[in-house]
Design goal:
Length: 203
């Protein structure tokens, strides 16, 4: 009987540790209220704070999970979404950590020390690391889920890597950001229409 209770206690302790780790990892989620402003909520849906990135260059990643865009967006300091592309993110059990991070380092060529490729070929080139435990945006197969990193296609990550700097904010969210891209395209079309009308230009 004591042995059964001890086993049960160990199982419950391990379950609590895993639950706590998952909660800690996903405890904050940014919700966009505009292209450059975010409200942060905890895992229980409680409001934590507002973050305003107006006037800053930053990256938004909406993870590839149900209810999210599965895309990466580069937002310039003037608030323009100048690049976006498809991504893949952490698989179940390896979910990418949500929150507002900062780029900690850039490495053009890199092999994961935790998950090295058996072929010996670098598997994290164009790395933009944003968490202490090694999660990063990097070149990868956007059709395959990861161990927590953000896989970005070659054309997209090449442009992003040249533009990004250490210290740049990375907004990692679960939810929809694509709405702002549509607003931007609609605004561009309206600006172009007004320009053509004012100058007598045609399409």
């Amino acid at each position: 009987m004591k042995k059964m209770l001890l086993i049960l206690l160990v199982v419950l302790t391990l379950t609590n540790i895993l639950t706590a780790a998952t909660y800690k990892k996903q405890r904050l989620n940014p919700i966009p209220v505009s292209k450059t402003k975010f409200e942060i909520y905890d895992a229980n849906g409680n409001y934590v704070k507002a973050v305003d990135l107006t006037g800053k260059d930053f990256i938004v990643v909406s993870v590839r999970e149900p209810g999210s865009d599965g895309q990466m967006y580069a937002v310039d300091r003037d608030g323009t979404i100048w690049w976006h592309g498809l991504i893949s993110s952490g698989a179940s059990g390896h979910e990418t950590t949500s929150g507002i991070h900062r780029i900690l380092l850039k490495r053009r060529f890199h092999m994961s020390s935790k998950y090295p490729d058996p072929s010996g070929v670098n598997n994290m080139d164009f790395e933009l690391q944003f968490t202490q435990d090694g999660q990063a945006l990097h070149l990868g197969n956007t059709a395959a889920m990861s161990h927590g990193c953000i896989h970005v296609g070659r054309q997209d990550i090449s442009a992003l890597f040249k533009w990004a700097n250490v210290g740049m904010p990375v907004v990692l969210m679960r939810g929809n950001y694509k709405q702002f891209l549509k607003q931007e395209v609609d605004q561009f079309r309206e600006d172009l229409r007004e320009y053509n009308a004012a100058t007598g230009s045609h399409k």
